[in-house]
Amino acid sequence: MIVRMKEKSTKVQYDKIVEFLKEKNLEVKDVSSDQVMIFGIIGDTTGFEPNDLYAFDGVSEVTRVSTPFKKASRSFHPEDTIIKFKNGVEIGGNQFVMMAGPCSVESEIQLSTIAKALKKSGVKILRGGAYKPRTSPYSFQGMGVDGLKLLRKIADENDMLVVTELMSSDVLDEFEKYVDIIQIGARNMQNFSLLKELGKSTKPILLKRGMSATIQEWLMSAEYIMANGNEQVIMCERGIRTYETYTRNTLDISSVLAIKELSHLPVIIDPSHAAGRWNMIENLSLASLAVGAHGLIVEVHHDPEHALSDGAQSLKPEKYDAMVKKLNKFASVMGKKIS
Ligand code: PEP
Ligand code: MN
Fold this sequence. Notes:
Layout: E1 2-5, H1 11-23, E2 27-30, E3 38-42, E4 59-63, E5 83-84, E6 90-91, E7 95-101, H2 108-120, E8 125-127, H3 145-157, E9 161-165, H4 172-178, E10 181-184, H5 192-198, E11 205-208, H6 215-227, E12 233-237, H7 254-262, E13 267-269, H8 271-275, H9 281-291, E14 295-299, H10 317-334, E15 337-338
Parallel strand pairs: 7-8, 7-14, 7-15, 8-9, 9-10, 10-11, 11-12, 12-13
Antiparallel strand pairs: 1-3, 1-4, 2-3, 5-6
Bound molecules: phosphoenolpyruvate and manganese (II) ion.
Residues 103, 273, 299, 309-310 line the site of manganese (II) ion.
């Protein structure tokens, strides 16, 4: 961190800051010239908020030069994190991992119809929401714990793992029992008390990017989970809110490159919530593979016209199958394996 003092600042003001930093076990490296008083702060500044220094008289500018996240940072952990599952799926390595299923679990027949079709397309991770974060309180809110039980049953029948969204830590025990990957939705990315609870979970966490979150804020949320004891975090880009309204959100495809540069954590893409339109999913998925994402989470419904949520962005199973065939061709050229 670099601190530049105002032109008319005094040695007394400077000394006061140095004393404050020393109390925090931080050292100061003075690089002042005749024109300007300037110094670097040396030591572990992860728990230190640069803006706090503006409370001192004489401070002109404080600039952070190292990242405020540590456990999520590639500088502290240069090798890629690969999250391994019992059925051979590995997220973060050379596999391009497909997670697919309906937006919401609606009934046994719905989930089983979709899962059976997806199994034929090679899907090993079944998605489906049992607790739904709906914008309107009058919209379908999900089947709750019955939905979790259905996910487990249908996934087991089809040799699949389960990924589903947790909205509140009071059902964490049920998630531990029925779920393989816990999804944290865009709306809860900065629910810090929930993130802290996830630190105690034994399950990998799929952390969606908040709809207005910067890449740093998103990584800080991963840091919350990791700092509290759970280092298995999968980042998921699902589009951010911009001024554009044609698509539901704007897919920030470059965030995959940013996450891979800044962090060792795996990063996947959710093209469904990014585009909000089923006819864009295939090409966005191909782009996700090309940009180096570690996988996808895609919404699929056998009867999207009557889906209880997100039908407009859901692929029919046959369209999903055709997409996977294309992804396979591209993956082999790239030396990757779709799983
Ligand atoms: C979902 O996956 O169904 C969902 C609600 O996603 P997001 O949190 O990205 O909006
Ligand atoms: Mn959805």
